[in-house]
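Progress note, sequence design subtask.
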C-alpha cells in the first residue's frame, strides 16, 4: 500500500473515532438540556423577557440532536467512501464549530449582567409573591433570597427545610447563592463541552477534507 493509501486509511479510522466522540457529545448536550429544562422553567417566570431563557434547554437539546445526526451522516460518508457526503459533512462541522464558539463568547459576555439581574429579580419575586417563591425553594432546595433571615421574624415555610419543624438552625441556604451556583455550573459545563467539541469539529473537518481528497485520488487511479 502506498503512502497516500496509508494516510487515507488512517484518516478514515480517525474520522470514525471522532464521530463516535461527537455522538457521545450530542447525547451529553441532550442530557444537559433535559436536566435543566424544569429548573430553568421555574426561574424564567421571574423575567419579563423569559422566552430566551426558556429556549436555552431546548436549544441544547436541538443542538445535541443536530450533532448526533451530522455525526451519523459522517460515518455513512466514511463507510461508503462518498466524497460528496464527506465534503458536506466538513462544511457542517465548521459551521457547528463556529456556532459553538459564538455561544461560548455570548455566555462569557453576558455572564455579569445575567447574575446581577438574577439576584435582583429573585428578591423582587420573594417580596411580591412569597407563596410562588416557595415553588422555587422546593425546586432548588433553598430558603429565601438570602437564607432564613429573609423571613425576619415570620414562621419559616415547609419549603425551607427538610424536617417537618422548620427553624433557622435546620433551614436551607439562600436561594440567590444556590441558583447562582446552579447556573454558573451549567454555564461552565456548556462552555467546556462546547469548546472541546468545537476543537474536535474543526479537526474533523480537516480530516474529512483529507479523506475526501484521498477518495478522489483513489477514484482517478482506478480510471488508469
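Output:
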Amino acid at each position: 500500500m502506498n503512502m497516500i493509501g496509508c494516510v487515507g486509511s488512517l484518516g478514515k479510522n480517525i474520522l470514525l473515532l471522532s464521530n463516535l466522540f461527537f455522538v457521545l457529545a450530542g447525547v451529553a448536550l441532550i442530557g444537559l438540556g433535559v436536566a435543566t429544562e424544569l429548573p430553568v422553567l421555574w426561574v424564567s417566570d421571574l423575567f419579563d423577557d423569559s422566552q430566551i431563557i426558556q429556549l436555552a434547554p431546548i436549544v441544547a437539546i436541538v443542538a445535541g440532536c443536530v450533532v448526533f445526526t451530522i455525526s451519523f451522516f459522517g460515518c455513512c460518508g466514511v463507510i461508503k467512501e462518498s466524497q460528496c457526503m464527506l465534503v458536506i459533512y466538513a462544511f457542517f462541522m465548521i459551521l457547528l464549530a463556529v456556532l459553538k464558539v459564538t455561544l461560548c463568547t455570548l455566555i462569557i459576555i453576558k455572564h455579569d449582567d445575567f447574575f446581577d439581574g438574577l439576584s435582583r429579580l429573585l428578591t423582587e419575586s420573594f417580596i411580591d409573591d412569597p407563596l410562588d417563591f416557595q415553588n422555587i425553594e422546593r425546586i432548588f432546595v433553598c430558603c429565601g433570597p438570602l437564607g432564613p433571615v429573609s423571613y425576619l421574624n415570620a414562621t419559616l415555610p415547609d419549603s425551607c427545610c427538610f424536617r417537618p419543624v422548620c427553624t433557622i438552625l435546620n433551614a436551607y441556604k439562600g436561594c440567590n447563592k444556590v441558583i447562582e451556583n446552579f447556573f454558573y455550573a451549567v454555564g461552565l459545563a456548556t462552555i467546556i463541552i462546547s469548546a472541546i467539541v468545537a476543537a474536535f469539529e474543526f479537526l474533523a473537518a480537516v480530516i474529512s477534507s483529507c479523506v475526501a481528497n484521498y477518495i478522489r485520488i483513489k477514484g482517478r487511479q482506478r480510471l488508469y
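The first helix runs from residue 3 to 44. Work on this subtask will continue into the next period as scheduled.
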